[in-house]
Design goal:
Helix content is 32%, strand content 21%. The strands form 5 sheets. Strands 12-11-8-6-7-14-15 form a 7-stranded mixed β-sheet, with helices on both faces. It has a 4-stranded mixed β-sheet with strand order 5-4-17-16. Strands 1-2 form a two-stranded antiparallel sheet. Helix 5 crosses helix 6 and helix 10 crosses helix 11. GO terms for molecular function: acetate-CoA ligase activity.
């Protein structure tokens, strides 16, 4: 280890081909009129109804963005790509922990998976504003689940897939979740982490959970409660999972998801993010700060159980029409240079 810091200086060709060729000028423009700056960014996305006001400061500190507008983050993350050549490009590349299993999904295929999951949730009575807790490892189904919730106007609450049953229970009961989506287990450092068992303990006395959807991942033997639990692959075979599913247009200020704080300084706190402001913010940062274009392949190593993963593994790359990469388990298993 040394104190030396390497600074990458891009050459002029990189600067000329980036989204932001003059960062200082952009910064000054945004400072001079931040409302106009964010309105300009928002116009790069699709809205089913335009906003009356970009920023409502009437109830500070509870600022409201794009008031009066209607949208849905899935419209911009998935639907709008289906009418373009991007429908056939890769949206997601996933690699299992042992690196032997690879799953890929084009934007068209991703949409079919999202519609399937959304139809299943609708069949369970999940509607706009209902909360679904997602306790899944880094696997393609976490994309399907989050996007399916957003598509039908439900609110997803992703819980980090290493938390205990007690921590999970706090977040399930605190959000009054109707459905929990989990897996039989997850791989971490070559060993199985018993996710379904943790969910069983967490929902044992939950007054709101009506259904638990279980994704087969590790092929572990798990207990199923016939009155509550459902194998996801079996649900996918049923007529309820088939057919198109329309994306529900919601108010820009309607909740998209809840993420709980870690609780390291007290009881975990539920942080709510909305469709309108969140999609504009994440879309813009990936474009301007990271210079990601639709032909790029992007890997963020974060977990969707935290805001970085939710934003820069799931939503932002799809909003940009790029290809996002995800790997399950430990990033240094079975050996540290597996990254490369």
């Amino acid at each position: 280890m040394t104190d030396q810091q390497d600074v990458f200086e891009p050459d002029q060709s990189i600067i000329d081909n980036s989204w932001v060729s003059d960062w200082k000028a952009l910064e000054e423009k945004a400072k001079a009129d931040p409302v106009a700056y964010w309105e300009e960014r928002a116009r790069e996305l699709e809205w089913s109804k335009p906003w009356d006001k970009v920023l409502d400061r009437s109830d500070t500190p509870f600022f409201k963005w794009f008031t009066g507008a209607s949208t849905n983050i899935v419209t911009n993350a998935v639907d709008r790509h289906l009418d373009t050549a991007r429908r056939n490009k890769l949206a997601l590349i996933w690699v299992g922990e042992d690196t032997d299993e690879v799953r890929t999904f084009s934007y068209f295929a991703l949409n079919r998976e999202v519609e399937q999951m959304a139809n299943i949730l609708l069949s369970m009575g999940v509607r706009k504003g209902d909360v679904v807790t997602i306790y899944l490892p880094r696997m393609p189904e976490i994309f399907f689940a989050m996007l399916a919730c957003a598509k039908i106007g439900a609110v997803h609450s992703v819980v980090f897939a290493g938390y205990s049953s007690e921590a999970l229970n706090q977040r399930i009961d605190g959000s009054e979740s109707k459905v929990v989506i989990t897996a039989d287990g997850s791989w971490i450092n070559g060993k199985v982490f018993p996710m379904k068992q943790i969910v069983d303990d967490a929902v044992k006395f939950s007054p709101t959970v009506e259904n638990v959807i279980v994704v087969r991942n590790t092929k572990s033997d798990v207990a199923l409660d016939s009155t509550r639990d459902h194998w996801y692959h079996e649900l996918c075979k049923l007529p309820i999972a088939k057919g198109k599913c329309q994306t529900v247009q919601v108010d820009a200020e309607d909740p998209l998801f809840i993420l709980y704080t870690s609780g390291s300084t007290g009881k975990p706190k539920a942080i709510v993010h909305t469709h309108g402001g969140y999609q504009v913010g994440t879309y813009t940062t990936l474009k301007q700060c990271f210079d990601i274009k639709e032909e790029d392949r992007w890997w963020c190593t974060a977990d969707p159980g935290w805001i970085t993963g939710t934003s820069y593994v799931i939503y932002a790359p799809l909003l940009r029409g790029a290809t996002t990469f995800m790997a399950e388990g430990s990033p240094v298993f079975p050996y540290p240079d597996v990254w490369w």
